[in-house]
Design a protein that fits this description.
Oligomer: single chain
Structural class: alpha+beta
Number of domains: 3
Largest sheet: 7 strands, antiparallel
Radius of gyration: 24 Å
Number of helices: 12
Shape: globular
Distance between the termini: 46 Å
Helix content: 25-40%
Strand content: 25-35%
Number of strands: 21
């Protein structure tokens, strides 16, 4: 009988007050051996392979991933999106199954509060939830929130489409031209039948308010129409207005009645309004949380082991686009395998989805060649017609792509100037494409505090540092500066 040379480890990550996440946390098994020199301690064992697996997040002992390992000792290490390091040791015996649980910070707000999980925002304390049924809901004493698809002028009742670049440009230019006018026009989001209702936990004593968006009723979702009718959330204070583009509906289960798909952690700090949108998903929660916190390498580790689930179907083009953004930021051409062809599918099968065209154009520009550049030019032009990208990183990639392909095209040059101007009001630190609109100041001016006023006739440029830092990563045991842009914060 041949002696067994392997054992098994059943592994999960436990975070208190959190829901299950199937593709949870990348975990590394590093083979080690005890050094003969006691002062050296444990050292790496080059005779055995280092293994990386994806552990689920769950309080349920029946939910785990099983990993087969060569016998011997291993150091187990994981990094949460917040940067918290989890570790354990295991001595794998032949034919044995070892149960390992990595336990995160002992706090009820570690994972269930998305802002804490990804290392952002101020964690709210647990408070009873309060349903809000009025169109404009008073939050955090001075905050108001509404959900809808169109902005309406309070003075003229004119309608403005926040999914269109041209509408944004006209609105922002008009507001700038009348920035000293006490009666400057104010827009608000008109409530619509988006199928979402608002619940909230009020913040007090400087703590954040938590705004939850709950699905009201079951609706049939055809993924081919993603991007057709957009849904936005408006959060406003006395000094600032935030308009956030929501990736809704999210997947085939996005319209299940009573399901919570979004939370927004909101807090005021003097004149500034800080809002952190969170996307809630039990399957891809950690993927987007790692992306949001700038740890692209760890997000790509999840994708490597879940590509078929992410790209194999067309049930969730928004999640597939997130995967595309991550892969385009981390993988080299020779590692890309067949996924870029799925990006072509994402662009062609969803004709109203701007991010799909931007992703495909980005890949073509990376491949180079006159034919690819010409195709990328057409895709970027098409993406502008489709509307504002769902994700902030799409805005920056659109600008970079136009800078490369609009030479000699007067129409694209004008589009580039327009998009640069609109992008000056985009919050580049947020996951979803979010706009900041200053409200009237006490002196009657609508100009934002502590910001230099740009010359009115100049195109508004994004600084290169804000559009080029796309590949900074963090891997196991190595700390590298975080990615400066974001994709959706998400928790399960």
């Amino acid at each position: 009988m041949t002696a067994r040379t392997e054992g098994k480890v059943e592994l999960r990550v436990q975070l208190y007050d959190g829901e299950d996440v199937r593709f949870g946390v990348p975990v590394q098994f590093r083979p080690v051996t005890e050094s003969l020199d006691d002062s050296a301690g444990r050292r790496g064992d080059g005779k055995r392979k280092m293994i990386t697996s994806i552990a689920p997040i769950s309080m349920n002992s029946d939910m785990y991933t099983r990993v087969s390992l060569d016998i011997g000792e291993y150091d187990i290490e994981a990094i949460l999106p917040s940067g918290e390091h989890l570790s354990a040791e295991v001595d794998v015996k032949p034919g044995k199954t070892h149960k390992v649980v990595l336990i995160g910070c002992d706090t009820s707000t570690n994972f269930n509060n998305g802002s804490n999980f990804v290392g952002r925002g101020s964690p709210p304390r647990k408070r009873p939830r309060k349903s809000l049924d009025e169109p404009n809901h008073e939050l955090h004493r001075e905050l108001k929130v509404s959900v809808g698809s169109m902005l309406v002028s309070k003075s003229t009742q004119s309608i403005f489409d926040p999914s269109k670049w041209s509408d944004w440009f006209q609105l922002l230019m008009k507001r700038y031209q009348h920035r000293e006018d006490v009666n400057v026009d104010i827009f608000s989001l008109r409530e619509s039948e988006a199928g979402l209702t608002v619940q909230q936990e009020e913040g007090a004593d400087g703590l954040s308010a938590r705004i939850s968006l709950i699905s009201q009723e079951r609706r049939q979702f055809h993924s081919i129409h993603v991007g057709g009718k957009r849904v936005y959330v408006e959060i406003s204070s006395a000094y600032e207005l935030r308009i956030v583009s929501l990736p809704w509906p999210w997947g085939e289960f996005g319209t299940r009645p009573g399901s919570k798909k979004f939370e927004i952690i909101a807090q005021t700090n003097g004149e500034r309004l800080h809002c952190t949108p969170l996307l809630i998903d039990a399957r891809w929660g950690s993927l987007l949380a790692y992306m949001s916190s700038g740890r692209l390498y760890l997000a790509s580790e999840i994708i490597k082991q879940a590509k078929d689930a992410l790209f194999g179907k067309s049930e969730n083009p928004l999640a597939a686009a997130v995967g595309g953004y991550i892969l385009m930021s981390t993988e080299q051409d020779d590692e890309a395998e067949n996924w870029p062809w799925w990006l072509s599918n994402l662009s062609e099968r969803f004709p109203e989805f701007p991010d799909g065209a931007i992703l495909r154009a980005r890949w073509l520009l990376r491949k180079g060649g006159m034919e690819n550049i010409s195709k990328a030019h057409d895709l970027l032009y098409d993406s502008i017609q489709r509307g504002i990208p769902f994700f902030t990183i799409g805005v920056t990639w659109l600008i970079e792509g136009l800078e490369q392909t609009s030479i000699g095209c007067s129409i694209c040059d004008e589009y580039l100037k327009m998009i640069r101007g609109v992008a000056r009001s985009v919050d580049l630190e947020q996951a979803f494409t979010s706009f900041i609109i200053p409200q009237c100041r006490p002196d009657g001016s609508s100009a934002p505090y502590n910001r230099k006023k740009p010359a009115i006739n100049k195109s508004l440029n994004l600084a290169p540092a804000q559009t080029k830092r796309l590949n900074k990563q963090e891997s196991f045991g190595i700390k590298i500066p975080k990615h400066s842009l974001s994709l959706p914060l998400l928790r399960g």
